[in-house]
Amino acid sequence: MRNITAQASAAAAKPAGSDVAVEVRGVCKMYNEVEALRSIDLDFPVGKLTTLLGPSGCGKTTLLKIIAGLIPATSGEIRVNGNVVTGPGPERAFVFQDFALMPWATVMRNVAFGLELKGMGKDERQSIARKYIAEVGLSGFENKYPHELSGGMRQRVGLARAFAANADVLLLDEPFSAVDEQNRRKFQEDLLRLVELEKKTFIFVTHSIEEAVYCSDRIVILSRRPGRIAQVIEPDIDREADPDAIRRDQGYLDTVEEIWQGLKRYVD
Ligand SMILES: Nc1ncnc2c1ncn2[C@@H]1O[C@H](COP(=O)(O)OP(=O)(O)OP(=O)(O)O)[C@@H](O)[C@H]1O
Question: Which of 60, 65, 67, 98 to mutate to test the pocket of ligand 1 (most atoms within 8 A of CB)?
Fold first, then answer.
């Protein structure tokens, strides 16, 4: 495990030896009188999964929304692929907690919708959508409607839609919170496979320390509100290993424990 807490500055929060997809510089966010985020400096490396972890209300979702361009920072700036963010853009896809699927459209139409908006022909967009529907494990469900799917399956549709739109940066806000424990584990394994396969930059918010350690290349721990970077941890996990073996691995367990020791002071 690489722990780069000591110098939680822009330099410290910079990943070693990799390209940067998203740069966060001096980001502060006020909601009227409420200071949600204070002076966030952070780099998100290309092709890696970075998790934002921290106590409830520390500004994780706020930071994700600012990166998505859904809300503005009060000060500071975000760059994606070197360009300053001024609003949402096609290179970023937000996978919402509540799925945000169109209830009147099939899985196929939901997944292909971004391509339809771009004016792509039906055959081409369906062929792209089919590929990603298969990648998230939903082959055979193309003609189903969201209400015919479980929460976990709807979540997968949301992911497939983000992949089909060919975004470089995927922003996932607690994507597994609405699914049961077994499905959650299966999803985590699928997510790791997709990170490997797709080489996209994933920014992930979770409340689960175990999930963060299992899935992440880097974990950014935010302090209680106003959110500041408290710690950046790079878990040293052999992801080639069997998932059950990883969860029993001493390095994994020690990392979970260390993060818990750091976070438990925030729990009332
Ligand atoms: N639209 C808003 N108007 C006013 N305050 C807000 C708004 N959105 C968020 N906040 C406040 O800003 C702080 C950060 O909220 P945010 O949802 O980003 O935290 P979070 O870390 O994602 O929380 P959780 O872990 O509980 O989901 C909280 O105190 C929240 O109440």
Answer: 60
The pTM assigned to this predicted structure is 0.88
Residues 55, 224: Cα–Cα separation, whole Å: 6
Q: Is the shortest distance between the CB of 58 and ligand 1 below 6 Å?
A: yes
Q: What's the CA-to-centroid distance between 193 and ligand 1, angstroms?
A: 31
**Residue 261: how many other CB atoms lie within 10 Å:** 9
**Tens-digit pLDDT string for the chain (268 aa):** 666 553 444 444 555 556 999 999 999 999 999 999 999 999 999 999 999 999 989 999 999 999 999 999 999 999 999 999 999 988 998 887 666 789 999 999 999 998 888 889 999 999 999 999 998 889 999 999 999 998 788 888 988 998 898 889 999 988 777 677 887 888 888 888 888 888 899 999 998 999 999 999 999 999 999 999 999 999 988 877 888 888 888 889 999 999 998 888 776 6
For the chain, the structural domain boundaries read 46-74+86-91+169-267, 103-166
Q: What's the order of all strands across the beta sheet hosting 75-80?
A: 34-45, 20-31, 75-80, 83-84
- 31 C-alpha to ligand 1 centroid (Å): 9
Check if 76 has its Cβ closer than 6 Å to any atom of ligand 1: no
Cα 248 from Cα 238, distance rounded (Å): 12
List phi, psi (to 5°) of 27: -80, 125
| CB 183 near ligand 1, within 6 Å | no
* CATH number, domain 46-74+86-91+169-267: 3.40.50.300
